[in-house]
Amino acid sequence: MPLLDIINLRTYFPSPDGMVKAVDAIDLQIENRERLGLIGETGCGKTVLGMSIIRLLVPSTRVQGRIMYKERDLLSLKEEEMRLLRGREIAMILQNPTMSLNPVLKVGDQIAEVIMHHRGLDKKHARAMAVEMLAAAMIEEPARRANQYPHELSGGMKERVMIAMGLASKPSFIIADEPTKGLDAGTKTEIVRLIRDMTRGRSMLMITHDLAAAGEICDRIAVMYAGEILEEAPAETILNDPHHPYTQGFIDSLPSRGLHPIPGSSPSLVNPPQGCRFHPRCPRATDECRREHPQMIELEKGHSFRCFLCA
Amino acid sequence: MRLIEVSELSKYYSAGLLKKQCTKAVDGVSFQIDRGETLGLVGESGCGKTTVGRLLLRLIEPTSGDIFFDGIDITKLSREEMRRQRPRMQMIFQDPESSLNPRMRIGESIAEPYRLGLKGRMKSDEIEDRVMELVNIVGLNPEHVNRYPYQLSGGQNQRVVLARILAVNPEFIVADEPTASLDVSVQAQILRLIMDLRNEFGLTMLFISHDMEVVRHMSDRIAVMDGGRISRFMNPGSKNIC
């Protein structure tokens, strides 16, 4: 029984051009104590998928399907019930710490607020625990840093604060959205290591376009493109033996793998291409790919992809 | 042939009235760039690499040191003299959206250098032809010309920035993390485009990035910066990464 079981999830937004199908019929499971990396490029719908789980979307969004968490369907919970889970059971580490932290509150108070709210501690104890959380996030002089405002901290340190805050309520499921974005090489290595160590033995969905970071941290990786999952496999398989042409192209475009771009650009989510959504950019597309929409095929246990060619 | 020669370049910032604090953003940096060469400048955030890029185009004034551009010490030029040199040296910034005027259509943005007369007097249809040519060179479609920056993706906007830069036929380009805000596959497209344009137009370049892998691909030679100084020069092929 997976901890999180997403069944046929569709998340659509109305827009002047029509419905934006940001998440289109996605099935995804995350086991207890498993860390899943969700890889994809800007606009493929990966953040919307995360937001659908924690239910932080604008009211006009249409969400269909089921998101089973500990045998309860999150999508059918009342807002009050959801509020009890959000941040406590299921926590989110939001992207862009500069935008996500409150600029006029000391970081220690921001973390203490989470602890007071979710764990019922008084201010004094919550504040002490906030300092402990900062120490756990490997921030030097945590007591002094807790008294500082976000603008006094570097980008890497703000990311550590975000991680400390996300984990402060001891959640059983963590959604981390682009935790390594905008960090330089050295800081990124440290943050990746920190996330890996702090989430060991926990369940996490890590949303990222940084394949190397996902490979370091996650047990499994799912590749998302134009609102769909195209390939899903153990992290090592995705990194070393990807089957889907998009996954292969994505890896080949990394500077360390030769910087070979995928031609063309990501499709519109209002009118995604007929047939396989990747066919207009696929070097191996056939008539079948243009005509038919491929289903997920399981190659071996734990490795599936959506492609006629690699079947 | 040398195009750029920088010697003992420094930029200090001081802050505070009573407790004067001095930050040495760039501290005695010297290097040369040959015509047609790309020098990679790599280092962590805050090491001073962007400041070096801005100093080179005199977007900020150095505290001390000389910058020779094609034999002219640009630190000694008057504003008017500097303005005449400006089209020869251009900059690609990290965030394409903020380098484009949000209220100008893409076509107008690319045509602006011509309308300002930087390439002499030109007729409207001549400008239009030139804009279309540039749009094609950077891999945009003709229909993009009538759109606004917010209607384009980050990668497409960076292509617009490149078209606008090519409009003035520069000799030297400072590229400051031009793909830091882009996805990997778009990054690969834009970097490939920059390489192609560089070869086609014989451009000289200072390529600034914190990503060693990217710098290796883009550069003929690499300068590693640390705490305001260049700690060493290296070959893109050499094994040891800092």
Describe the model.
The complex is a heterodimer of chains A (311) and B (242). Chain A has helices at residues 46-54, 79-85, 97-100, 107-119, 123-136, 142-146, 155-167, 185-198, 211-217, 235-240, 245-252, 287-291; strands at 4-15, 18-30, 35-39, 62-69, 72-73, 90-93, 173-177, 203-208, 220-225, 228-234, 297-300, 303-305. Chain A has an 8-stranded mixed beta sheet with strand order 6-7-8-3-9-10-12-11, sandwiched between helices. Chain A has a 4-stranded antiparallel beta sheet with strand order 2-1-4-5. Chain A has 12 helices and 12 strands. Chain A is α/β, with parallel strands linked by helices and 311 residues long. Chain A folds into 2 domains: 4-33 and 40-77 and 220-305, P-loop containing nucleotide triphosphate hydrolases (Rossmann fold, 3-Layer(aba) Sandwich); 97-170, no CATH class. In chain A, helix 4 (107-119) packs across helix 5 (123-136) and helix 7 (155-167) runs parallel beside helix 8. With 242 residues, chain B is of the alpha/beta class. Chain B has a single domain, classed as P-loop containing nucleotide triphosphate hydrolases (Rossmann fold, 3-Layer(aba) Sandwich). In chain B, 33% of the residues lie in helices and 28% in strands. A 6-stranded mixed beta sheet of chain B has the order 6-7-8-3-9-10, with helices on both faces. In chain B, helix 4 (106-115) packs across helix 5 (124-137), helix 4 packs parallel to helix 6 and helix 6 (154-166) runs parallel beside helix 7 (184-201). The model of chain B has no long low-confidence stretch (mean pLDDT 92). The A-B interface holds A 41-43, 154-155, 182, 184-187, 209, 211, 249-250, 253-256, 259-263, 265-266 and B 44-46, 153-156, 180, 183-189, 191-192, 210-214, 216-217.
Individual helix count of chain A: 12
- By oligomeric state, this entry counts as heterodimer
Number of helices of chain B: 8
Q: Beta fraction of the residues of chain B?
A: 25-35%
Structural class of chain B: alpha/beta
